[in-house]
Design goal:
Helices cover 10% and strands 52% of the residues. The chain is mainly beta. It is elongated and about 95 Å long.
């Protein structure tokens, strides 16, 4: 049996068969069988586990032979200052390894101000109250305990417990839970399309002075999630974007437009509505903050709409995310709608957007899963126009060439790393290609995307 399992403390109802200690310092202890403190101890390899072992050793107890007991620990965080985290609580149980992994004690302590003092206080109480337990105390069968627990709980340790890498804000965290993520996107489109009909360059030159050959978008995104309570999780996403457009003139000379810099910021509040064994549901309410520049120029000329780094206006985002989980299969559904608040300083606003993701995952092992996802996008036209742009120069300058209905299909691989230096890290990759395209006006189309997503949770999957 794996000893490095995450757990939730539960209350043992029969006080006659165990010793329960509660006090005003936030400490709770259940001892169900006498502990031999002269035997060796091992613990979860984290800050709290290491401190407990060190505290027991520093008391001069004589250990006999191999480690007899294993102490499994988890802990939660809180903000001490706006940028500093400290441990707020921890809980654990003591397992007798040579007796079929039976639980002999469990404990929890909260509202911690000094971690070292709390450890000392805990070990004092474990030793002193251990003397009150008779030799015939009742055991808890840990295998039966986890079997019952897993029947009621969503398994967040699975590689397919999250959405594929192309989906944002797909899960919530319990109080104090943290996730730090990095997302890399390569996107490239080629050809000019009106509706779903491809235009050749001769037809483009009938109306415009330049023909767009291709567009590339590379973005680096930092994601951060924090559970401010068991029901509410805050999500934020910060982007650095580089865009490149290759075009040709009628004389066939090729040139480039390049822009790069910080993009708009995505802030969301995720509220957990349902959290059960096989299904999760939370709302997505957010604000897109116009940090990205809309003043980028190519020498003296203003860059086209699609080459700017932001929208220039605030947008409201609303929707929800639902996930299900069966024995080997999982999936989800996320409809989001964003709408702008007014125009930007250049007298235009991006059209409202309906963005729908749905996906299926197949669990191949405890560490690897595969996914297939479809993304339906309905983007409205740009409202207003930038009067400094020459509409006849290229299709990108014409505000009438905006708005689309797209359906993209993505194939993904997800890996959950549970051991080693990258423990508690999730790696997800996806490749996306268009299944259906319908563009309003003439636009660059046929975009293919590659997405790499790295997510790290310091406390592990127990906080999901």
């Amino acid at each position: 049996m794996k000893r490095y399992l995450l757990f939730f403390c539960f209350i043992i109802c029969n006080d006659i068969l165990c010793q329960r200690i509660n006090n005003q310092n936030g400490l709770s202890i259940n001892i169900v069988n006498k502990i031999d403190f002269s035997s060796g101890f091992d613990a979860t390899d984290n800050q709290i586990g290491n401190l407990i072992i060190r505290n027991i050793e520093n008391r001069g107890l004589i250990f006999s032979g191999k480690n007899r007991y294993y102490i499994s620990i988890s802990f939660g965080w809180k903000y001490k200052r706006s940028t500093e985290l400290q441990i707020d609580n921890y809980k654990g149980f003591i397992i007798e390894k040579n007796n079929d992994d039976k639980v002999v004690a469990e404990f929890s302590i909260s509202n911690i101000k000094d971690v070292n003092k709390s450890i000392d206080f805990l070990v004092d109480n474990l030793i002193s109250n251990n003397e009150l337990v008779g030799e015939d105390g009742k055991f808890i069968d840990i295998k039966d305990h986890f079997m019952k627990m897993n029947m009621k709980m969503w398994d967040s340790s699975r590689p397919d417990s999250h959405a594929p890498s192309g989906v944002d804000a797909d899960h919530v965290h319990s109080k104090g839970g943290i996730m730090i993520g990095y997302k890399l996107l390569f996107s490239q489109g080629e050809g000019s399309y009106n509706d779903n009909i491809k235009y050749n360059k001769n037809r483009i030159f009938t109306y415009y002075l330049r023909n767009i050959i291709s567009q590339k978008i590379n973005s680096h995104s930092l994601e951060f999630m924090y559970g401010i309570s068991n029901s509410i999780t805050l999500y934020s996403k910060f982007n650095f974007i580089k865009k490149e457009t290759i075009y040709e003139s009628f004389e066939s000379s090729k040139s480039k437009l390049i822009t790069s810099g910080i993009g708009d910021i995505d802030l969301q509040s995720l509220y957990s509505i349902i959290s059960k064994k096989n299904i999760k549901l939370h709302s997505n309410i957010g604000l897109l903050i116009p940090v990205g520049s809309i003043q980028k120029k190519n020498k003296l000329n203003m860059m086209p709409y699609s080459m700017q780094l932001g929208s220039g206006h605030f947008s409201i985002l609303t929707g929800f995310t639902s996930l299900f989980q069966l024995n080997k299969i999982s999936g989800g559904f996320q409809p989001l709608y964003s709408f702008n608040i007014g125009e930007n300083p250049r007298d235009y606003a991006h059209g409202n957007l309906f963005d729908l993701n749905y996906w299926l995952g197949i669990k191949l092992s405890k560490f690897i899963s595969l996914s297939i996802r479809q993304n339906y996008i309905n983007q409205n036209r740009i409202k207003g126009e930038d009067s400094t742009l020459n509409k006849s120069l290229m299709i990108l300058n014409n505000n009438n060439n905006s708005g689309s209905v797209l359906l993209n299909t993505s194939f993904g691989l997800n890996v959950a790393i549970k051991k080693g230096i990258f423990k508690n890290t999730r790696v997800s990759i996806e490749y996306s290609l268009p299944s259906y395209m319908s563009y309003s006006g003439v636009q660059v189309g046929n975009f293919n995307d590659f997405i790499l997503n790295l997510q790290y949770s310091p406390g592990g999957h127990k906080n999901h």
